[in-house]
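Long-time lurker, finally posting.

We've been working with Helix-turn-helix type 11 domain protein (mine drainage metagenome) and I want a structural starting point before designing mutants. I don't trust myself to interpret raw outputs, so I'm hoping someone here can both generate the structure tokens and explain anything notable. Sequence follows.
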Amino acid sequence: MSDAAVRLLRLLGLLQSRPGLSGRQLAGNLGVTERTLRRDVDRLRSLGYAIPAAPGASGGGYHLGSPGSLPPLPLDDAETMAVALALAAPAPTGVAGSEAAALASLAKLDRLLPAHLRRQVTTLRATTLSIDHSQPTVPTERLVALAECCHVREKVRFRYRTGDGRGGGRQVEPYRLVATEQNWYLVAHDLERSDWRTFRVDRMCDLERTGHTFIPRELADPARLVAQAVTVAPYRYRVVVEVAAPADQVSRLVPSSTSMVEPAGAGTGARTRLTFGARRLDWAAAFLIDLGLPFFVHEPTELREHLLTLGRRLIAANGGERSPPGTCGRTAIG
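Top reply, 14 upvotes:
Generated this for you. Predicted structure of Helix-turn-helix type 11 domain protein:
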């Protein structure tokens, strides 16, 4: 690689890591004159890099701006490996065509990799497997349109199919897009129902932008609204328990797709509020017992009674009426 090419890459690295350096400072870092620096900046601009310069007493501050198209991007070895691995085994996004685009990008990158990096990437690809998550896919255009409408606060119309197959038209004020492990959701204010709703993006069709903007309403936590819709709303029972363990410990035991985990205390006595939905009380009881941690059931009352009945049956089956360990006046189970 020529000295000029190396200098251009060094200049690009300085612009990325230390925006706002003056022409004199950049020239000093590169060991060239300010005239040479200006020629190098012009060369980068000709390659597609947007490099605005603010005038000043020291020659002006240079910044790396946003170009109209993606110019060449210099990466070090660690960054190149990270990009290659992400493209070789992309996380499921639920966006139609993203896997094919990732493989096409990897093929382009592979042709440019130095030999030692190509060997590492090839070895990892040959010895790595991924499991099909089989999540519903969403057209990229639909996701982008919804994101734009959330950003510019534009009302949208669409037809929507609910989980039980019922369909109908909706007109909403889109607020946020939320991605879970399985699906993309739109959090929006439903104008017909005058309330906040969550919509699975893969169940939408005939999306239309209305051209009418709105003043956004306040919503403290759109992600929590989606979590409630996914983990609680579809089920017969809403279960709320307090677990005698820190939230990070409980989070490792329960998947975020089935439960809401929130800290309920700090310090040595840290406790966790765990909320989830259940169709049957026996399933909820087994889920809680499987945690292996002390807990107290806040709701529903039927689950508390079910656990006590289950405990008495287990004691009787093991030949005695001894009090189960860990019980107290609050009917703690653990």
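Before you design anything, note these points.
The first helix runs from residue 3 to 17.
The two ends are 67 Å apart (CA to CA).
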